[in-house]
């Protein structure tokens, strides 16, 4: 039997997050914890989730804040850049490969949550590190994940690099010309957009919702740091909107029933996966913000009735026994396993949907459950930095 319970179980999710965080703090050297293979990213996921549901982790564990900073310190690795030694984050305390831009981004996001504000520590060192990842070959630009990578076209590294720059230079973004070749970077993103409107991992790759999110977020950050409000004219956002909306499919858990729900897939012909509720909906929100003054196709916006069904679709993936969310719909006969990534992306998507522009009063669940009694604790997330919006005094 699939999950027919349409209530966001806040207390159960709190218990799940506390369990995962307790493991991360006390058993970080174990290979059997839920965060062992994604350590610094997993810490960010669970801290961000806790932040969004207003669960103060520091109240749950003795000296928790210092313990998290201690774990971050263990992830630091020393690099020599421009004849100066600097420390940057690697994936986990036992990863002795060179620091990566993906790990550095998670480290900055963790510090933002723990400090309750954006801090600009080591911004000059970070700018130098970013420059060391950028490779120009003719008219082509490559941004690598780490210094020991080969030249790579990967939109994840473009997004992560831009966001690291944005957060670490938050109060003064005027240094971008000395760090990036913005014109080449913009041209690369333009060339990466496929005929269907979406973006793949690299040039001419199949459109994929996760990589599309990275691309549209990158465009939004470039728009902000360059103050170029017409950058959207270089892209076909109407076509992109249509491609994103085609990612909404009927949930396999409630096909042909009165309680039918919708969910998202990441590519054409693929099954529903709750993680795409974030990648797709966040992309739609960012595109809408970028093109706010343009004549967009009115059919490209999701109305409140659809939002209600999408919320139901996400809640189908809630694990009603252990808490958290799982990749496929919860089934009481064949119980799946929650994991930190799908929990993070599901709660982030619910935060974004709940705090959408549609009037809350028009979103109702089946009686007697009232959604906004249980969603009220969800605070608003910024879809680009993927942090609570309370940390940003400006939004991209």
Strand content: 5-15%
Spatial shape: globular
User: What Rg do the Cα atoms give?
Assistant: 21 Å
- By DSSP, the count of extended strands is 8
What's the N-to-C terminus distance?
A: 43 Å
Helix-strand pattern: HHHHEEHHEEHHHHHEEHHHHEE
Estimate percent helicity.
40-55%
How would you characterize the largest beta sheet?
2 strands, antiparallel
Total number of helical segments?
A: 15
Which strand order do you get reading across the main beta sheet? 1-2
Mean pLDDT: 85
Helix/strand-derived category reads mainly alpha
> Stretches where pLDDT falls below 50 for ≥5 residues?
359-372
Task: Give a topology summary.
Layout (H helix, E strand, L loop, with lengths): L9 H17 L12 H14 L4 H4 L3 H11 L1 E6 L2 E6 L11 H15 L7 H11 E4 L2 E4 L11 H14 L7 H4 L2 H11 L16 H18 L10 H9 L2 E3 L11 E3 L11 H15 L13 H12 L24 H15 L16 H5 L5 E2 L4 E2 L8
Antiparallel strand pairs: 1-2, 3-4, 5-6, 7-8
Helix pairs in contact: 1-2, 2-5, 2-14, 5-7, 6-7, 7-10, 10-12, 11-12, 12-14, 13-14
């Amino acid at each position: 039997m699939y999950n027919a319970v349409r209530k966001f179980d806040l207390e159960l999710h709190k218990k799940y997050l506390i369990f995962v965080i307790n493991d991360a703090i006390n058993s970080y050297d174990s290979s059997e914890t839920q965060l062992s293979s994604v350590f610094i990213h997993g810490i960010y996921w669970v801290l961000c989730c806790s932040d969004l549901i207003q669960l103060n982790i520091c109240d749950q564990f003795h000296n928790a804040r210092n313990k998290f900073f201690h774990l971050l310190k263990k992830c630091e690795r020393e690099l020599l850049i421009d004849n100066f030694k600097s420390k940057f984050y690697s994936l986990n305390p036992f990863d002795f490969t060179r620091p990566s831009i993906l790990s550095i981004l998670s480290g900055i996001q963790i510090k933002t949550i723990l400090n309750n504000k954006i801090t600009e520590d080591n911004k000059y060192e970070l700018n130098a590190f970013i420059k060391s990842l950028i490779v120009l070959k003719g008219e082509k630009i490559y941004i690598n994940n780490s210094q020991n990578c080969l030249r790579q076209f990967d939109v994840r590294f473009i997004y992560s690099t831009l966001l690291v720059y944005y957060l670490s230079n938050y109060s003064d973004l005027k240094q971008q010309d000395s760090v990036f070749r913005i014109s080449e970077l913009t041209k690369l993103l333009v060339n990466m957009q496929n005929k269907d409107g979406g973006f793949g991992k690299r040039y001419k790759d199949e459109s994929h919702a996760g990589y599309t999110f990275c691309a549209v977020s990158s465009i939004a950050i470039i728009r902000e740091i360059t103050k170029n409000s017409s950058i959207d004219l270089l892209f076909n956002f109407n076509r992109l909107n249509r491609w994103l909306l085609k990612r909404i499919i009927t949930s396999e858990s409630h096909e042909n029933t009165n309680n039918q729900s919708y969910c998202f897939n990441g590519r054409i012909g693929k099954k529903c996966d709750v993680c795409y509720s974030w990648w797709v909906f966040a992309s739609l929100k960012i595109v809408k913000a970028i093109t706010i003054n343009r004549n967009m196709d009115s059919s490209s916006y999701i109305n409140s009735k659809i939002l209600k069904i999408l919320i139901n679709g996400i809640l189908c993936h809630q694990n009603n026994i252990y808490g958290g969310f799982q990749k496929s719909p919860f089934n009481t006969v064949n119980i799946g396993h929650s994991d930190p990534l799908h929990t993070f992306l599901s709660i982030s998507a619910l935060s974004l949907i709940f705090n959408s522009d549609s009037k809350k009063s028009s979103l109702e669940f089946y009686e007697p459950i009232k959604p906004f009694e249980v969603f009220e604790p969800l605070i608003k997330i910024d879809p680009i930095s993927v942090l609570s919006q309370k940390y940003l005094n400006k939004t991209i």
